[in-house]
């Protein structure tokens, strides 16, 4: 093991909250120790859940491990925390390119270049994506039935649609756990969109959980009013097998997120903010 | 009030930002013991916290994640924290919005363990 890596490990052992944890995760990743890198990156996230750089490092580990969906989500969180984060734009550009969405890839890479104008890897990536984007157009000019870009799965494809154009089942597409751990419900306990599955058996429990949460909004409102706590924002229930996070993206809807305990409470809160924004846009589109 | 109960509540109310703590019977929402600042309505705290906890208990069980070990209602000007103790009692704290939740959670769990 190189001395530099040993020094990073010693520093992190001495002070687990140190930002050196990010450098250590990146070093382990570049050495190919993905399990170690993931462990260290997650520890970094626990200590710094609101640091875009921590999400960027974890996303890079996820990409190397082939978990593109979660990487997408991590970079999305990084951008929510820092909209000009070059690493997150670069990563999302790569993932968009991989999905055949050259337009989105170019958008992200151009923003990455604006953030880091001297990064040669971004310049090179832009060249590759521009060439790929031009190729189908050139082919279309000569061959009427040019092949389509690499097909994306319906869920991946939905992630590129604006929220207002999505179906109830794909409202949260692109967010980690968007198809099985995010549920939009009305105050009367009826499901509106998303889905929720039993953590242990994968059974669909959306309607059952929604029914139990009927009226909770009014109850939380009454509680906050009587105790003079102001307007209620969210409720988090940490249980042995996972955490539920309930918020109110609009007056007439509640948003429930369910995650296992490996997701730190702070990170769950960030995910909830992003999901609530998507839910709001989708609900507004339904009312037009 | 028993000395043990008083000590458990004191350890929570000592935390900066905590306006008061109550021990509540989980099934009927009645107060077992309380240490609240003047103006905080003990009966309301007890009944509402117990009711909210019961709702989430049913929801977490239906979701397959078992019973809540910590419930946190965040509002614009304050928060309500609930931890169940093994004896069927809920430990409830009313606090400021910017309280150190980690510390309060820790003290409440310690107090719950003392009831085991």
Entry summary:
Chain A has 288 residues and is an alpha+beta fold.
Description of the molecule:
- With 288 residues, chain A is an alpha+beta fold.
- Chain A has helices at 3-14, 20-30, 34-47, 52-64, 68-81, 86-98, 102-115, 120-142, 154-159, 206-212, 216-226, 265-287; strands at residues 181-185, 191-196, 232-239, 242-250, 253-259.
- Chain A has two domains: 3-141, Serine Threonine Protein Phosphatase 5, Tetratricopeptide repeat (Alpha Horseshoe); 154-286, Dynein light chain 2a, cytoplasmic (Beta-Lactamase, 2-Layer Sandwich).
- Chain A has a five-stranded antiparallel sheet, sandwiched between helices.
- The longest helix of chain A is centred in the middle third of the chain and has 23 residues, at 120-142.
- Mean pLDDT of chain A is 82; it is low at 143-157.
- By secondary structure, chain B is an alpha+beta fold.
- Chain B has a single domain (3-115), classed as Dynein light chain 2a, cytoplasmic (Beta-Lactamase).
- A five-stranded antiparallel sheet of chain B has the order 2-1-5-4-3, sandwiched between helices.
- The longest helix of chain B has 21 residues, at 42-62.
- The mean pLDDT of chain B is 88.
- β3 of chain A pairs antiparallel with β3 (68-75) of chain B.
Tally of DSSP helical segments of chain A? 12
Indicate the overall shape of chain B.
globular
SSE pattern of chain B, N- to C-terminal: HEEHEEEH
CA distance, first residue to last residue of chain A: 61 Å
| Tally of separate domains of chain B | 1
CATH topology of the largest domain in chain A: Serine Threonine Protein Phosphatase 5, Tetratricopeptide repeat
Q: Could you tell me how far the N terminus lies from the C terminus of chain B, measured between alpha carbons in angstroms?
A: 18 Å
Read across the widest sheet of chain A, the strand sequence of neighbours is 2-1-5-4-3
Uncertain residue ranges of chain B: none
β-strand amount of chain B? 25-35%
CATH level-two architecture of chain B: 2-Layer Sandwich
Count of extended strands of chain A: 5
SS elements, strand count of chain B: 5
What would the CATH topology of chain B be? Beta-Lactamase
CATH architecture of the largest domain in chain A: Alpha Horseshoe
**Name of the CATH superfamily of the largest domain in chain A:** Tetratricopeptide repeat domain
- In total, the number of domains of chain A comes to 2
Low-confidence stretches of chain A: 143-157
Largest binding interface between chains? A-B, 39 and 34 residues
């Amino acid at each position: 093991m190189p001395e530099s890596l040993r020094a990073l490990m010693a520093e992190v052992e001495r002070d687990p909250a140190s930002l050196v944890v990010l450098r250590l995760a990146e070093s382990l990743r570049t050495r190919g120790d993905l399990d170690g890198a993931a462990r260290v990156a997650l520890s970094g996230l626990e200590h710094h859940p609101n640091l875009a750089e921590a999400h960027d490092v974890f996303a890079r580990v996820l990409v190397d491990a082939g978990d593109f969906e979660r990487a997408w989500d991590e970079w999305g969180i990084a951008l929510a925390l820092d909209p000009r984060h070059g690493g997150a734009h670069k990563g999302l550009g790569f993932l968009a390119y991989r999905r055949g969405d050259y337009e989105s890839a170019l958008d992200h890479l151009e923003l990455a270049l604006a953030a880091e104008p001297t990064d040669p890897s971004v310049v090179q990536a832009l060249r590759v994506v521009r060439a790929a984007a031009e190729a189908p157009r050139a082919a279309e000019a000569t061959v009427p039935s040019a092949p389509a870009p690499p097909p994306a799965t319906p869920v991946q494809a939905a992630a590129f649609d604006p929220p207002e154009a999505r179906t109830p089942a794909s409202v949260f597409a692109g967010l980690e756990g968007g198809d099985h751990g995010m549920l939009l419900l009305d105050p009367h306990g009826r499901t509106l969109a998303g889905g929720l599955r039993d953590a242990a058996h994968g059974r669909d429990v959306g309607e059952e959980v929604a029914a139990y949460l009927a009226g909770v909004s009014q109850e939380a409102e009454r509680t906050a009013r009587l105790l003079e706590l102001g307007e209620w924002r969210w409720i988090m229930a940490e249980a042995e097998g996972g955490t539920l996070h309930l918020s109110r993206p609009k007056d007439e809807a509640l948003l429930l997120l369910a995650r296992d305990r490996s997701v730190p409470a702070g990170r769950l809160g960030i995910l909830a903010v992003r999901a609530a924004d998507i839910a709001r846009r989708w609900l507004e589109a339904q009312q037009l | 009030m028993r000395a043990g109960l008083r000590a458990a509540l004191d350890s929570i109310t000592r935390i900066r930002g905590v306006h008061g703590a109550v021990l509540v019977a989980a099934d009927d929402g009645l107060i077992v013991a309380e240490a609240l600042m003047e103006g905080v309505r003990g009966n309301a705290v007890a009944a509402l916290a117990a009711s909210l906890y019961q709702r989430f208990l049913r929801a977490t069980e239906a979701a397959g994640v078992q019973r809540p070990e910590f419930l946190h209602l965040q509002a614009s000007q304050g928060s309500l924290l609930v931890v169940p103790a093994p004896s069927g009692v809920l430990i409830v704290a009313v606090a400021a919005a910017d309280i150190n939740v980690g510390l309060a959670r820790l003290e409440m769990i310690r107090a719950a363990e003392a009831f085991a």
